[in-house]
Amino acid sequence: MNKRLLSTTAVLMALTGPAFADMDAARSFLDAEIGDMSVLDRAGQEAEMQWFVDAAEPLAGMSINVVSETITTHEYESRVLAPAFTAITGIKVTHDLIGEGDVVEKLQTQMQTGENVYDMYINDADLVGTHWRYQQVRNITDWMAEDGADFTNPDLDLDDFIGLASATGPDDKLYQLPVQQFANLYWFRHDWFTDPDIMAEFRAEYGYDLGVPVNWSAYEDIAKFFTGREIDGQEIFGNMDYGKKDPSLGWRFTDAWMSMAGMGDKGEPNGFPVDEWGIRVNENYQPVGSCMARGGATNSPAAVYAIDKYIDWLKNYTPPAAAGMTFSEAGPVPAQGNIAQQMFWYTAFTADMVKEGLPVMNDDGTPKWRMAPSPYGAYWEDGMKVGYQDVGAATLMKSTPVDRAQAAWLYAQFIVSKTVDTKKSHVGLTFVRDSSIRHESFTERAPKLGGLVEFYRSPDRTRWSDTGLNVPDYPRLAQLWWQNIGDASSGAKTSQEALDALCEQQESVMERLERAGIQGDLGPKLNEPQDPQVWLDQEGAPKPKLDNEKPAPVTIAYEELIKRWQE
Questions:
Q1: How far apart are CA 220 and CA 312, in angstroms?
Q2: Number of folded domains in the chain?
Q3: Domain-located, residue 566
Q4: Residue 376: inside a domain
Q5: CA angle 395, 400, 405 (to 5 degrees)
Q6: H or E segment and range at residue 78
Q7: Are strands 369-372 and 120-124 parallel, antiparallel or unpaired?
Q8: pLDDT tens, position by position, for the chain (567 residues)?
Q9: Which of 34, 263, 275, 387 could be cross-linked to 258 through a Cys-Cys bond (beta carbons 3.0 to 4.6 Å apart)?
Q10: How far is CA 386 from CA 62, 163, 258, 278, in A?
Q11: Cα(241)–Cα(106) distance, integer angstroms
Q12: Taking each helix axis from N to C terminus, what angle separates 196-206 and 216-226, rounded to the nearest 10 degrees?
């Protein structure tokens, strides 16, 4: 947090005493924090703030509690935007920051007990399948027309949001409002990849050009090529990852690693009928199986290939300490300057990778690294999901009293309002509005962000998606992944053994949901088990084992790729 943000927060906290809406506080906030860093001019900003002042008047004096995971964007919301909202509206917001797994756990507790733990959750749209089936959250579509109507910003402009599809159910209802999102892309040292000597050495050794890997075969070659060499006095590694048996290890795989390998079916934003978790659904989106014996793909040859490659690269091309790291611990490591590439890299780390003085930054403020689409595995086919996009979204539970939900809804809209969104986007680099992405300030900043702006201005951005509708109970199923993948990562089980256990446990949860009937006609309806070969012989997932799991490597020049994004 820089000094300016701290001083702004201090000013705003001093203004939060009176429990009434205050336009003077709004003007102080606009002067101190926003300025011209908005898609709205000053008159437009003041008009939008006046709407919040007026709308909040019936609720002034209330105190509400909001929770989100701890990332740069949410830290900004908690430290700067929440005090500003309190000062402007008279509604006191306590915005807690905890681990992502803890957010899901708190939400699950509220779902199970009906007790109002938090008035609003900012949690991943990964849970849209859960919310659609359980119907325990207020769907935003109906909310805006009913109890939330008087508290819905007429200038909210949902058409400006880029991630609504991830939070929309098959009933075309919006269940969550995106407040931040970031993609999972490929990261690499552009300065090394374009060094003439390194390029010549790579071509002499592998017979093709060093460039952005299009497939896993090329990624593996590049990882092997860089690992162990010395550049600028440092030992270099050709891969970065993490392997600690921790909830974040589950996201490492459910966040589309399996679809990138080619495990699921064709279909965007998610494979259908088999998705990136290996769960098969019928035509009504009822889950019918996870193991191959029921038509699922969680323990299929493509899934085993995906885990085997991860373990191989973790052991052979990654810093040894990475095996004991979590997601948050591993994230900053490439900024230290000894990593050549990382396939599974979240753009949420961009803000921490562009800081002045880092080994991966040039003196002129431009990065030595770039981002690009992640390569695909041997089982991947054109038309399949290409990658994951985290969509953190405001979620209002039905168990939250109406007036508290109305106050929370105002806060949700404030932190994505056109007045503040461009500034917030500069702080966290997690875009939700198209207008912010296209703001002239990002045109100016684009050369210093390694391809992030070009990606989000391109049509490609819609091809990276959240977990889809096939997952009937995200909290219960997600915890099975890290435990079982952890067994494979540690060597306690083979990949096949771990995935067999995982798919059986997923089906056990779905069987309990089916027997309980709590999701009604939307819940699981499992197929009868049969010989897996019956499914392997059919088109699509699960797919039979390939004779060759390392096809010819393919690379592309970054400049050619970025030109496609710019067009």
A1: 10
A2: 1
A3: no
A4: no
A5: 65
A6: none
A7: unpaired
A8: 343 343 444 444 444 444 556 899 999 999 999 999 999 999 999 999 999 999 999 999 999 999 999 999 999 999 999 999 999 999 999 999 998 889 999 999 999 999 999 999 999 999 999 999 999 999 999 999 999 999 999 999 999 999 999 999 999 999 999 999 999 999 999 999 999 999 999 999 999 999 999 999 999 999 999 999 999 999 999 999 999 999 999 999 999 999 999 999 999 889 999 999 999 999 999 999 999 999 999 999 999 999 999 999 999 999 999 999 999 899 989 999 999 999 999 998 898 899 999 999 999 999 999 999 999 999 999 999 999 999 999 999 999 999 999 999 999 999 999 999 999 999 999 999 999 999 999 999 999 999 999 999 998 888 899 999 999 999 999 999 999 999 999 999 999 999 999 999 999 999 999 999 999 999 999 999 999 999 999 999 999 999 999 999 999 999 998 888 776
A9: 263
A10: 44, 16, 10, 15
A11: 28
A12: 120
pTM score > 0.90 for this model?
yes
- Domain assignment of residue 113, yes or no: yes
Strands (E), 272-386: 280-281, 287-289, 341-346, 369-372
* Structural domain containing residue 35: 3-182+389-463
| CATH number of domain containing 176 | 3.40.190.10
Q: The tokens of 73 are what?
A: 């964007």
Are 418 and 157 contacting, i.e. CB atoms less than 8 angstroms apart? yes
Q: Is residue 280 part of a domain?
A: no
